[in-house]
Amino acid sequence: MKHSLETYKFFFGALANPNRLQIINILRQGKKNVGEICVVTGFEQTMVSHNLKVLEYHGMVFMEKDGKYRYYAVNKKTIKPLLEFIDAHMEEYCCKLLEEQHERKK
Amino acid sequence: MKHSLETYKFFFGALANPNRLQIINILRQGKKNVGEICVVTGFEQTMVSHNLKVLEYHGMVFMEKDGKYRYYAVNKKTIKPLLEFIDAHMEEYCCKLLEEQHERKK
DNA sequence: TCATTACATGACACAAATATCATGTGTTAT
DNA sequence: ATAACACATGATATTTGTGTCATGTAATGA
Question: Which residues of B touch A21 (CB under 8 A)?
Answer without folding.
Answer: 1, 5, 8-9
